[in-house]
């Protein structure tokens, strides 16, 4: 859904069968063998359960084809051509309604990633931990950029990286393992360790944690 154009969502469409507002829905994934799909990321669909087209469709398909389904009225963005989408139940497409706020958030995230990716080049020279963390902790950022962020993290060797990383849950476990290896190296290089009990960073040679009093 990352490529959906906000401008497309601004279009207002009303179903000619029931006068209800039509919803912008994500286009269903179409297999290559099924043709080219709709050629649009978004379809405007009438989701009104009392729409006359939808109500009549059940009977029509039952008598015509002998199976249980109906139609939803659909138009493509920028077109008033009528299309029918076959649906097997009244909830079809309701989960794929596109929320413009989600798209805005995605766009903002994408812009941040772009800016951070440029700044990452000189993050070590600039002592810019923030930019490294922005990419490292952004699960939607490009893989290769995040891999580069790990390299920079090791080079920067800043112990302040540990807390924000520990407060993040990584989706990819092998990526998380790489990050953990870097953290171990940073701790070692700074003569520190994490308390096994409370997780606070303490001196490597400490026998007792100054935060939780755990003894080792
Ligand atoms: Zn309708
Ligand atoms: Zn402790």
Q: Main beta sheet: strand number and arrangement?
A: 4 strands, antiparallel
- Strand tally is 6
Distance between the termini: 50 Å
Mean pLDDT: 93
Q: Outline the low-pLDDT stretches.
A: none
Question: Which outline best applies?
Answer: elongated
Ligand species? zinc ion
Would you tell me the structural class of the helices and strands? alpha+beta
Number of helices: 7
Number of domains: 2
* Cα radius of gyration in angstroms: 26 Å
Beta-sheet strand percentage? 5-15%
- H-E string: HEEHEEHHHHHEE
Major sheet: arrangement of strands? 1-2-3-4
Q: Into which percent range does the helicity of residues fall?
A: 25-40%
What does this structure look like?
The protein is an alpha+beta fold and 216 residues long. It has 2 domains: 6-96, no CATH class; 105-203, no CATH class. The protein is built from 7 helices and 6 strands, in the order H-E-E-H-E-E-H-H-H-H-H-E-E. It has a 4-stranded antiparallel sheet. A two-stranded antiparallel ribbon has the order 5-6. The protein is elongated, with a radius of gyration of 26 Å. The two termini are 50 Å apart. One zinc ion binds next to loops.
Layout of secondary structure:
Layout: H1 6-9, E1 23-26, E2 42-45, H2 52-65, E3 70-75, E4 83-87, H3 100-120, H4 129-136, H5 143-156, H6 162-166, H7 173-189, E5 192-194, E6 201-203
Antiparallel strand pairs: 1-2, 2-3, 3-4, 5-6
Helix pairs in contact: 3-4, 4-5, 5-7
The structure holds zinc ion (2 copies).
């Amino acid at each position: 859904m990352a490529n959906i154009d906000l401008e497309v969502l601004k279009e207002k469409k009303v179903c000619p069968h029931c006068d209800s507002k039509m919803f912008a829905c994500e286009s269903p994934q179409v297999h290559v063998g099924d043709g080219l799909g709709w050629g649009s990321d978004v379809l405007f669909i009438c989701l009104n359960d009392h729409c006359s087209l939808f109500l009549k469709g059940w009977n029509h398909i039952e008598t015509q084809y002998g199976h249980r389904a109906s139609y939803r009225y659909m138009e493509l963005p920028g077109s008033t051509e009528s299309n029918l989408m076959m649906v097997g139940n009244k909830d079809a497409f309701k989960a794929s309604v596109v929320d413009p706020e989600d798209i805005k958030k995605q766009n903002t995230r994408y812009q941040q990633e772009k800016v951070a990716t440029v700044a990452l080049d000189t993050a070590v020279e600039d002592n810019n931990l923030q930019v490294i963390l922005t990419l490292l902790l952004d699960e939607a950022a490009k893989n290769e950029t995040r891999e580069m962020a790990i390299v920079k993290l090791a080079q920067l060797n800043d112990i302040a990286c540990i807390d924000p990383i520990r407060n993040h849950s990584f989706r990819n476990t092998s990526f998380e393992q790489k990050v953990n290896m870097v953290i171990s190296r940073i701790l070692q290089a700074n003569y520190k360790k994490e308390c096994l009990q409370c997780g606070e960073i303490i001196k490597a040679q400490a026998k007792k944690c100054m935060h939780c009093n755990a003894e080792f």
